[in-house]
UniProtKB/TrEMBL annotation:
It comes from the Eukaryota. It comes from Oncorhynchus tshawytscha (Chinook salmon). This is Transposase Tc1-like domain-containing protein. GO terms for molecular function: DNA binding. Residues 68-118 form the Transposase Tc1-like domain. Residues 1-51 form the Sleeping Beauty transposase HTH domain. One of its GO terms (biological process) is DNA integration. It holds the Pfam family HTH_SB. SUPFAM superfamilies: Homeodomain-like (SSF46689).
Length: 121
């Protein structure tokens, strides 16, 4: 399991030593990093020809940008609309998502729900 990334300088040094003919074990001892790390850096360099940190993939969004904007617009237009109504409206468009997903989207855009205020008599 990886727990930290090495600096670009260290990764470049590993590749430089590898090009100079050093083996994994010698590079590992010289730079005081694990042999498996040296191996991973070199394999990545061989495949991508770079030592930069590549972007990591993330889970794709359930909703399209169009549907997300529509949700926010509906919630802003009708402040008393419920999450269930918004869920049904997204299902009509073709995107079926959970209520918590809708709530999360609204929260990220700065819209929060509030309950009915009780009058104190």
């Amino acid at each position: 399991m990886k727990n930290k990334e090495h600096t670009r300088q260290v990764r470049d040094t590993v590749v430089k030593k590898f090009k100079a003919g050093f083996g994994y074990k010698k590079i590992s001892q010289a730079l005081n990093i694990p042999r498996s790390t040296v191996q991973a850096i070199i394999l990545k360099w061989k495949e991508y020809q770079t030592t930069a940190n590549l972007p990591r993939p993330g889970r794709p969004s359930k909703l399209s940008a169009h549907t997300r904007r529509r949700l926010i617009r509906d919630a802003a237009k009708r402040p008393m609309i419920t999450l269930d109504e918004l869920q049904r409206s997204t299902a009509e468009v073709g995107d079926s998502v959970h209520r918590t997903t809708i709530s999360r989207i609204l929260h990220k855009s700065g819209l929060y729900g509030s309950g009915k205020k009780k009058a104190i008599s």
